[in-house]
Amino acid sequence: MVITMTNQTYGACVTKSGRYWNIDLGSVGHTSTKKSYEIDLVARDYISLQLNLKPFDFNIAFEFPGEKPENFIPTQFESFMIFVKRFLRIS
To answer: Which of 10, 25, 36, 60 could potentially form a cystine with 69 if both were Cys, beta carbons 3.0 to 4.6 Å apart?
Structure first.
């Protein structure tokens, strides 16, 4: 499998609000998730759907002005592996 990355980078400002992590993607929009390890996946999925891109064809620069989650995984390969494990129900 070949993962092609473009030089396009989108910014994401992530803040904690109660039990949710709010992800502000600037002009692309905003989304949220309850689980901190899903921040990258949710942001990537949202950008992909809004801009009709493949999920791993761009980079995301995350900014945490407040609390940074302990389980945050920003790299594309690790995010992909979490998705695969969840899809295949592998622990």
So the answer is: 36
